[in-house]
Amino acid sequence: MVARTQLKKGNIDWEKIFGKNGVRWFHTGGIFAALSQTTPEVIIEAVTTAKEYGTVVSYDLNYRASLWKDIGGQKKAKGVNRAIAPHVDVMLGNEEEFTAALGFEVKELDESYSKLDPANFKKMIIEVVKTFPNFKVVATTLRNAKTASVNDWGAVIYTDGQFHDAALRLDVEIYDRVGGGDSFASGLIYALMEGKTPAEA
What single-letter DSSP state applies at residue 136? Predict the structure, then answer.
């Protein structure tokens, strides 16, 4: 078994996975892309093969500066993510990640990203889909961290030229913040695979 950090192009039989096995949805993201110099090549190989067989590709930007610092930093992250993005159908990420990992800007956003104006974020998404018209869905959680354990929480999904907003929940008490983005992504993916409407998703 090859460790994830040592995976290289050619280690995985994507033709079998997408062509023979008929996998319908492939999800990956920026954390895997940042694990080594070779993992971005593995992703490109996977997503290009997935698209040949009509497999839906979703990608969570999940920008972590600490992971990228030893393999080229933010500049490398932007280059890698912009190379992967044309193969993505469903792009996930928060406001900071669209800025750091893809080079887009949310205007009038404070540097700590703590107070997000959904209207400004939506303007950025319009620019994102102009650059990457292959994105069928763009989604994000909207979080305002008041303390480590109390957040305001919401979400936005953009598809077919329309935005759908989740109800904004104020002063949510959080037991453990780890995995909040992943749980959002898994719920969204499940709903879309099950044929739910964007608003339901």
Answer: S
Domain total in the chain: 1
3-state helix, strand, coil in the chain (%, to 5): 40, 20, 40
pTM: 0.90
Burial of 81 (C-beta count, 10 Å sphere; 0-12/13-18/19+): buried
Q: Is 140 helix (H, G, I), strand (E, B) or coil?
A: strand
Q: Which domain holds residue 169?
A: 12-193
Question: Which SS3 state, helix, strand or coil, does residue 34 take?
Answer: coil
In CATH, what number is assigned to the domain containing residue 33? Answer: 3.40.1190.20
User: CA 159 to CA 50: how far, in whole Å?
Assistant: 21
Q: Kindly report, residue by residue over 125-142, the tens digit of the pLDDT.
A: 999 999 999 999 999 888
